[in-house]
Amino acid sequence: MSGRALICTRLGGPEELEVADVPEPAPGPGEVVVAVSHVGLNFHDTLIIAGTHVVRPEPPFSPGSEYAGTVVAVGDGVTSVGAGDRVAGNEEYGCARDTVLVRADRVTVLPEHVTDRQAAAILVAYSTAYHALVQRAGLRAGETLAVLGAAGGVGSAAVDVGNLLGARVIAGASTPERAESARRYGAHEVFSYGGTGEAGAAGTGDAKAAIKELTGGAGADVVFDPVGGAVAESAVRAVAWGGRYLVVGFASGGIPRVGLNIPLVKGSSVVGVFWGEFVRREREAHERNLRQIFDWAAAGRLRHHVHDVLPLDQGPRALRELANGRVRGKLLLRAGGPGG
Length: 340
Ligand SMILES: NC(=O)c1ccc[n+]([C@@H]2O[C@H](COP(=O)([O-])OP(=O)(O)OC[C@H]3O[C@@H](n4cnc5c(N)ncnc54)[C@H](OP(=O)(O)O)[C@@H]3O)[C@@H](O)[C@H]2O)c1
Fold this sequence. Notes:
Blueprint: E1 2-8, E2 17-23, E3 31-40, H1 43-50, E4 66-74, E5 86-90, E6 99-103, E7 107-109, H2 116-136, E8 144-147, H3 153-164, E9 168-173, H4 176-181, E10 189-192, H5 207-214, E11 220-225, H6 229-235, E12 239-247, H7 261-266, E13 269-272, H8 275-281, H9 283-298, E14 306-311, H10 315-323, E15 330-334
Parallel strand pairs: 8-9, 8-11, 9-10, 11-12, 12-13, 14-15
Antiparallel strand pairs: 1-2, 3-4, 3-6, 3-15, 4-5, 5-7
The chain binds NADP nicotinamide-adenine-dinucleotide phosphate.
C-alpha cells in the first residue's frame, strides 16, 4: 500500500515542494498510523521548508505540523487509542501526507461533535493562543487585550479565545480591511497599523497611537504579538501599567529590539511564548487546554474561519499564499483519509 506525501526535497520556497507516492508506514511499539483527512497549515511551515525556522529538518521531509484523521494501525503496547478512533495531533513537521506514523502518546482522541476539519483548523492556532493568554499572560476577564496580526491564523484565534475568556479585545492588522475582518472573531474594536501584508512590507505603522487611543490613554493589559518588526517596537510602548507583552512570533521577518527601560517604567513584563516546547514539557497541561478548546468547539462557541481547503497536491500553492500573508484564518489541505 502506498499514499501521497508532500515532500520538501530541497530547502527553499514552496515551488521546491513535490508530491510523491510513499509506502504506507508500519507502526513500531508505542506508535500508531493515522489515515489523515485534513492537514492544518501554519506560517511556520513556510519557514521550515526554507530552513529559516528553529526547527531544521534535513530534506527530504514533509511539511505540515497538525493533522486530523482516523487511526488505521496500532503498534505493540498501545492502549490509549485503537483502530477506528478519530484523532488529531501535532508534530514539528511531517504531517502533509495521506498517512502519518506518530507516537500514540502524541495523539488526542476527538470528541464526537468535533469534526476532523475543525480539529485540523484549530489545534495549533487555538492552543497556542490559549497557552499564551492563560498560562503565560494570566489574562483576566475585564482586562483589555490587544492582538496584532489579528487577521492571521494565530492572531484570529487569540481574538476568539480572548473574547471567550471575557477580555475586551482590540484587534490590529496591517490594513483597515484586514483589521475589520477580525470583528468576525469577536473583536470589540479594530485598528490598522500600516504595511500591505505582502512579504517584507508589513510593520510600517504606528500601533502605539491606535492602542492608546482605544484604551483612553491607559494602554492594553495584554498585547499578543505574532508579527514582530517595527509594529512590535511601537506596540510594546502601548502596554498598560503592570501589563504583559506576549512575544509569539515574527511573521513580518523582523526581530524587534526593545529597550529594557520600557518594561521598567511600565512595571510590565515581556513574556516569551513557545507553545511547541510547552506541549513537549507539560503534556498534561496541554491536554487540559485542548479539552477546553474542544469543549468550546463542540458547543459551537468558536468563531474560527477556514480560509480554504485545497487538495494535498495543491500544497505548494497553499504554502505560497501563506508565505505572502494572503490567508485570513486557516488554510487546510485535504489528504486521502476518511473524515469530514
Ligand atoms: N510562539 C509560538 O509558540 C508560536 C506558535 C504558532 C505560531 N507562531 C508564530 O506566529 C506567527 C504567525 O503565525 P500564523 O500561523 O498566525 O501566520 P499567518 O496566519 O500567516 O498570520 C501572520 C500575520 O502576520 C502578519 N504579517 C506581517 N508581515 C507579514 C509578512 N511579511 N508575511 C506574512 N505575514 C505577515 C499578517 O497580518 P497583517 O498583514 O494584517 O499584519 C498575517 O496575518 C509566525 O511567526 C509563527 O511562527 C508562534
